[in-house]
Amino acid sequence: MDFLDKLLFYPLEQLPFYLIALIIAFTVHEFSHAYFANKFGDPTAKLLGRVTLNPAVHFDFLGIVLLLIAGFGWARPVPINRQNFSNPRRMSIIVAAVGPLSNLLLGILGALIYAVLYQTGIIPPEGITKTDQAVHLFFNIFILLNFFLCLFNLVPLPPLDGYRILENALPPRMSAKIQKFEQWSILIFLLIILLPFFQNYTIKPLYDTAYALSSKILDMFILMTGGYRH
């Protein structure tokens, strides 16, 4: 158990809650990419069975392992042929952006549900029973994780959505220049994973920002529903 605690980024006793939250977050994220790509005229993802909320088709084993041991990771990328879009650049930006947006909306929805349950007394603030404590913990993890995934996916590094947005937003000549750096993306991720120095300037600030955002939104919804958080 001590070995697992040291290996995992998340506390072992909280791991089931993180896994459930990740399944929901990654599934909705990738489904959003696939759904909008299909809506915009590219059937590639649909033909491969990716326009679905079935988690099994969206999971990438390496991405999940890295998320559990390093604090970040990814799902299986949705294949997209931008040439099928009537406006490849604009529609590619939208398809890339809906992934992080879906995580933002999931985080907000989770905060709203938590606030309503909290204020109606369905989950008491004291967390009297283990079930109450588990519900509190799950919602806090779910909200924080979705906000983190939203921010992380907006980082402009390949193969993240932020890079795809930047790649399609830049003029073609500049876009071609940054595409040359795609070959170094795995090395960059390995540096972030293996060296705490890089984590302090990448993963940690994103988590801190996600935590601050989740706390403020939770407090706002709880105040809107007639109370305050203990």
TrEMBL record:
Keywords: Cell membrane, Hydrolase, Membrane, Metal-binding, Metalloprotease, Protease, Transmembrane, Transmembrane helix, Zinc. Its main location: membrane. GO terms for molecular function: metal ion binding; metallopeptidase activity. GO terms for cellular component: plasma membrane. Its cofactor is Zn(2+). InterPro entries: Metallopeptidase_M50B, Peptidase_M50, Rip2-like. It comes from Paenibacillus vortex V453. The chain crosses the membrane at residues 15-36, 56-74, 94-117, 137-160, 181-198. This is Peptidase M50. The keyword Hydrolase applies.
